[in-house]
Write a structure and sequence with these properties.
It is a single chain. It is built from eleven helices and 20 strands. By secondary structure, the protein is of the alpha/beta class. Bound molecules: adenosine monophosphate and zinc ion. Zinc ion is lined by residues 251, 253, 258, 313, 315, 317.
Length: 437
């Protein structure tokens, strides 16, 4: 196999050809899927017993959706579609139930995944001259090895730094002349706070770009990271059920993420009715993988909320773009009957320059009512012992939030660097209300 990381023929393929390629790959994927115990049963119930039953891409709509619960029910080997001796790796993500969702890879699957990752990385302008410090968790989580393999494929010098320990991260950046970073957006913000504390001069670093993903963040957060660290930030999207990162990535236009449609079929549906949304409307992203033989997954309900761009991208790539994920259909908070997405709160606070780099949303019961508290750090320019600007900032946050989400929150201001930071995905919401009420 020869997977090139820059292939204009594929990336700029006319839509009709791209769809023909998708159909051909979908048939192959279904042939693989029919070997997995779960799909053998599921698909035969839906009247599909052979990949040749698929005549057009529209036929995919006859397929039932696959959910995270299905994957858990199929644990450990219900979705495996090749002999176990041909599996070379697994990745897993553990959810709240404790039963992990496990994805298996053949050797070819790994190569294909690395190819998509390399395409993403090269598309942001990186090449073999770059030094890439991968500051995200390695291990069962796909973010570490995913970007790592892609970086090597592009020929960059990859430093498998892993997450955490900012002092060590700065040292590596200085020692090796790091030009590219990968981390969660919250860790990149944290890094900037620590950089100031440690007295590390930006001029002593050679940073040019960062890939930020694994958790939702707003355009304001991207701009904040870009201006604080003086780098270009590119949004990286993926999920372990679809290999991990490498499903969709921003190109240098930074206007939406190209979904690699020769590897994935994307649909957007209304999460309540499961019917397709109208062009450009927001809904839940549904993904079908077209590039993995060991664990095929068809019409996966990602729970991630997004919308498609209708227009083609200025870069000339024809693969459809999606807007940044605004949240998950299951992370909506209902506070005294009002629906609020954490992303709405982030958008308000991250646009204020007086606000620092970390925040936490707390929802709790206060008698019969719900109470929302927004805790934010203040920027290093604001002194905690000067109450006048602090009170003014508190009022400003309260008023802007109330105008945006129709809830009057309590606002707490904290010193820069004092709110907790997690090594993996940021925990932005603490909802202590009893679940069964
Ligand atoms: P995991 O399977 O543990 O890697 O988690 C995948 C989930 O992380 C996705 O379904 C999204 O909810 C979230 N995620 C990953 N990348 C992004 C991103 N760039 N923006 C927003 N959410 C993301
Ligand atoms: Zn583009």
């Amino acid at each position: 196999m020869n997977y090139q990381y820059w292939d204009p023929q594929i990336e700029k393929m006319p839509r009709a050809e791209l769809e023909a390629l998708q159909l051909q790959k979908l048939k192959t994927e279904i042939r693989w899927a029919l070997r997995a115990p779960f799909y053998k049963e599921r698909l035969s119930k839906a009247g599909i017993s052979c990949h040749d039953d698929i005549k057009s891409l529209d036929d995919l709509k006859r397929f039932p959706f696959t959910t995270k619960n299905d994957l858990r029910d199929g644990f450990p080997y219900g979705f495996l579609s090749i002999p176990k001796e041909d599996v070379v790796r697994l990745h897993a993500s553990s959810g709240t139930t404790g039963i992990p969702t496990t994805i298996y890879f053949s050797r070819d699957d790994i190569k294909r995944w690395a190819g998509y990752m390399a395409r993403c990385i090269y598309g942001t302008g990186c090449d073999k001259n770059d030094v890439f410090q991968n500051m995200i968790t390695y291990g069962l989580f796909t973010g570490g090895l995913g970007l790592h393999q892609g970086g090597e494929e592009v020929g960059m010098l990859v430093i498998p730094a892993g997450a955490g320990n900012t002092a060590r991260q700065f040292k590596m950046m200085q020692d090796y002349g790091t030009t590219v970073l990968h981390a969660t957006p919250s860790f990149l913000l944290h890094l900037e706070t620590k950089m100031k504390e440690a007295g590390v001069q930006r001029e002593s670093l050679s940073l040019k770009r960062a890939f930020a993903g694994a958790e939702p963040y707003s355009e304001d957060t991207r701009r904040r990271i870009e201006s604080l660290l003086k780098i270009d930030v590119y949004n990286s999207y993926g999920l372990s059920e679809m290999n991990g990162p490498g499903v969709a990535f921003e190109c240098q236009c930074k206007e939406g993420l190209h979904i690699w449609e020769d590897g994935y079929i994307a649909e957007i549906v209304n999460p309540d009715t499961l019917e397709p949304v109208k062009e450009g409307e927001t809904g839940e992203l549904i993904l079908t993988i077209l590039c993995r033989e060991a664990t095929p997954i068809l019409r996966y309900r990602t729970r991630d909320l997004t919308s498609f761009y209708n227009e083609p991208c200025k870069c000339g790539r024809t693969h459809r773009r999606m807007r940044r994920i605004t949240g998950r259909s299951d992370d909506m908070l209902i506070i005294n009957g009002v629906n609020v997405f954490p992303s709405q709160i982030e958008e308000v606070i991250m646009s204020m320059k007086e606000v620092g780099n970390n925040y936490l949303i707390v929802v709790e019961k206060d008698g019969a009512l719900d109470r929302l508290t927004v805790k934010t750090e203040v920027s290093t320019e604001i002194f905690m012992d000067d109450s006048r600007p602090l009170n003014a900032l508190k009022e400003k946050i309260k008023e802007t939030l109330q105008a945006s989400i129709s809830i009057n929150p309590k606002v707490e201001l904290h010193e820069s660097g004092s709110l907790p930071i997690s090594e993996g995905k940021a925990v932005r919401v603490k909802d202590t209300r009893p679940k069964d009420v």
